[in-house]
Amino acid sequence: MSSHIKLAPSVLSADFARLGEQVAEATSGGADYIHIDVMDGHFVPNITVGALVVAAVRSWTDLDLDVHLMIENPECYIPEFVSSGATLVTVHVEACPHIHRTIQSIKQLGARAGVAVNPATPLSSLEEIIRHVDLVLVMSVNPGLGGQVFIPETLDKVARLRSMLDERQPTAELEVDGGITLDNAAGVVRAGAGVLAIGNSLFKSQSGIIRTLQAFRETVS
Ligand code: DX5
Ligand code: ZN
Fold first, then answer.
1. C-alpha dihedral, 114 to 196 to 160 to 152, nearest 10°
2. Which of 124, 145, 179, 182 is most buried per CB count within 10 Å?
3. What is the DSSP string of 119-154?
4. What is the pLDDT of residues 82-128, one digit of tens each?
5. How far is CA 170 from CA 3, 10, 163, 165, 177, in A?
6. What is the Å distance from ligand 1's center to 146 Cα?
7. Which residue of the set 40, 64, 66, 177 is catalytic?
8. Residue with the nearest Cα to atom 4 of ligand 1?
9. Is the shortest distance between the CB of 198 and ligand 1 below 6 Å?
10. pLDDT by residue (tens digit) across 122-167?
11. Contacts with 158 (C-beta within 8 Å, 6 or more apart), sequence order
12. Can you tell me the distance from the alpha carbon of 185 to that of 194, in angstroms, rounded to the nearest whole number?
C-alpha cells in the first residue's frame, strides 16, 4: 500500500500484571513503537501511569517509546518522562497555551516532539506550530479510554492533515490513535496515516499479540 507503516501497540489495553512480557512480545512481533498513554484525571477523566512505568517498559524493549501525554501542564513532567526513556513525547495542543515553548523543551531534552489534537479540535490550531514538530497525532476517539469506536470523520481530517504536512513539514509523522481495528486500518493508512496506535484490538485479540500484529502488518502493506 505505501512505505513502511509503523505499528504502535498502545499498552493501555495490555495486562498490566504482565506488562513487561507483553511489551517484549509486541517487540518480537514486529511493533515499531510502544505507545504509552499518560492520563492525569484532569485533562481526561481517567488516571493511568507516570514516568515509573515508562522506565519499567524501557527495560523490556529497545523500541522507541511513544509517550502520549493526556495531562495538564505537561511541561512540568517532560524532563522526568525523557529521563525515564521516552524517545517521542506528544503533548495535546489543547493543554498547552505555550505550545511553541513546550515543543522546544522536548527537543532540547533530546526527544522527538509530537502534538496531538482531539476529535473536535480543528487542524487550524496547528498552523503556527506544524513546522516545528516531528509528529502530529490525530485522536480518532475522545481521549481517556481504550476500546472506543473510531470516529469516521477522522478520515477526512487525516487526509487534510496529510496535505498540510506534505506542504509544510514533510518529515513529520502522522499518527492516528483510537479505535483502530483490522477492518479500518487500511482505510486510515490510505487517508494518509503513517503510524497507527493500536490498543484494544491488539491486546484483547483472541489470536494473541504476535499473530494479530502480523495481521495488521498484512492489512497495511
Ligand atoms: C485513548 C488513548 C489510546 C488508546 C487507544 O485515549 O490515547 O492510545 O489506548 O486504544 P484503542 O485502540 O483501544 O482505541
Ligand atoms: Zn494514545
1. -130
2. 179
3. TTS-GGGGTTTGGG-SEEEEESS-TT-SSPPP-TTH
4. 999 999 999 999 999 999 999 999 999 999 999 999 999 999 999 99
5. 14, 25, 9, 5, 20
6. 4
7. 177
8. 146
9. yes
10. 999 999 999 999 999 999 999 999 999 999 999 999 999 999 999 9
11. 138, 174, 176, 188, 191, 192, 193
12. 11
Residues in the chain: 221
If pLDDT is split at 50, 70 and 90, which confidence band does 3 have? confident
What DSSP state is assigned to residue 40?
B
The residue whose CB lies within 8 Å of the most ligand 1 atoms, and thus the one to mutate among 40, 91, 115, 141, is: 141
Neighbour count for residue 15 (Cβ, 10 Å): 11
Side chain identity at 153, as an amino acid letter? E
C-alpha cell at 88: 517521542
Gap between the Cα atoms of 190 and 127, Å rounded: 23
Instruction: Let me know: does 65 contact 87? Beta carbons within 8 Å.
Output: yes
Helix residue ranges, H only, the chain: 19-28, 51-58, 78-83, 99-108, 154-168, 185-191, 200-203, 209-220
8 and 197 Cβ atoms separated by less than 8 Å: yes
Residue 88 beta carbon below 6 angstroms from any ligand 1 atom: no
